[in-house]
Specification:
It is a single chain. By secondary structure, the chain is α+β, with helices and mostly antiparallel strands. The chain is built from nine helices and 20 strands. Strands 10, 15, 16, 17, 18, 19 and 20 form a seven-stranded mixed sheet that branches. A six-stranded mixed sheet has the order 4-3-2-1-8-9, sandwiched between helices. A hairpin with a 4-residue loop joins strand 19 and strand 20. It is globular.
Length: 347
């Protein structure tokens, strides 16, 4: 049986470029080479597609984050596939380990649909909806899931609704890894926080801070079924106001408690809410769904990540591992699921 040629695509034009590279490094190191023939493709910050050496090391070294070099062997995309140096790379499945805009938001998924290339993860609409929190929240609410109270603004000229009291979170509607997010404790900080978020996106969400526990749940669609992981709790060092970029990636103090410290029966309710959200957004393959369990005993959905951080130590693979599926098996399941799925524009 010939090996499946898998394009591991990383980098991209979003502010999560570097984290995408780290995720790809993990997959490249763990992929089962008896089944798959990986081809590493990097998208530079300026948008060039490059064929990268298989021994590229994209690990974090002394706190320095890796990135795709701006020059190299370029790739062209045609209706016949991906080509480099006039040669067809003969890719069977794309694994776009891209986080944030231009990768997790339906844009690259649309490109794959247009050239008929199967790919890991959610389709165009589910990716776009999940990426844009201002669209995802009404969909969750329509399914009976509780969301944090908030408002969407597109400039710093707005009137704060009376139902929003401090502290507030201000975040770009379509960004990830907490890039552009601020916790605002008083009125005189709000305008600057909105301006900061607007440097990442044209649309900003101002949300009431939920006091409680940060809870994450992994969903895996493979082998014809949808599995929901045990629920994990994020515990960060006291020096952090919230689970920001630094706490997520550059400081190894974050702890993932599995199972989460929750009252009896709450985990099952969160797992059910995760499944409801996954189906409501039309997700496929994988998703990490983030919740708060408030001090008022409410389960509040925060967001869906359709291509979550994917290093061996990332929350998503760790949670799936608690279901008895290790990192390499997870990669295998996702690629085979993508390969066996029918290519259809309706996705």
């Amino acid at each position: 049986m010939s090996k499946v040629r898998v394009a591991i695509i990383c980098g991209g034009k979003s502010s999560e470029h570097e984290i995408s590279c780290v995720s790809a490094n993990g997959v490249l190191g763990a992929i089962d080479r008896s089944l798959f023939d990986p081809v590493l493709i990097g998208i530079t910050k300026s948008g060039k597609w490059l064929l990268l050496a298989e021994d590229t090391n994209f690990s974090i070294i002394n706190g320095a984050l890796p990135s795709v070099p701006e020059s190299g062997v370029e790739i062209s995309l045609t209706s016949s596939g991906l080509f480099s140096g006039g040669k067809n790379l003969a890719i069977d499945v794309a694994f776009p380990i891209l986080h944030g805009p231009y990768g997790e938001d339906g844009t690259i998924q649309g490109l794959f649909e247009m050239i008929g290339l199967r790919y890991v993860g959610s389709g165009v609409l589910a990716s776009a909806v999940s990426m844009d929190k201002s669209y995802a929240k009404p969909i969750f609410a329509a399914q009976g899931l509780k969301v944090a109270e908030g408002v969407v603004v597109s400039s710093n000229k707005f009137t704060l609704p009376s139902n929003l009291s401090y502290p507030l979170f201000v975040k770009p509607a379509r960004s990830g890894s907490s890039r552009g997010t601020s916790k605002v404790k008083q009125a005189n900080e709000l305008s600057a926080a909105v301006d900061y978020a607007l440097t990442f996106d044209t649309k900003v969400i101002i949300e009431k801070a939920v006091v409680g526990k940060e809870i994450e749940c992994a969903v895996l669609q493979a082998d014809g079924e949808i599995k929901v992981s045990a629920v994990g709790q994020i515990v960060i060092a006291e020096k952090y106001e919230f689970y920001d970029f630094q706490a997520k990636y550059l400081d190894n103090t974050m702890q993932l408690l599995v199972p989460a410290d929750l009252p009896a029966g709450v985990e099952a309710k969160i797992q059910q809410a995760a499944l409801t959200a996954f189906k409501a957004a039309g997700c496929e393959g994988l998703a990490r769904i983030d919740f708060f369990y408030s001090n008022d005993s409410e389960i509040i959905i925060n967001e869906i990540n359709t291509m979550p951080g994917f290093t061996p130590t990332s929350v998503y693979p760790k949670l799936i591992e608690h279901s008895g599926i290790n990192y390499q098996q997870l990669i295998t399941k996702l690629i085979y699921t993508a390969q066996n799925r029918s290519a259809s524009i309706t996705r």
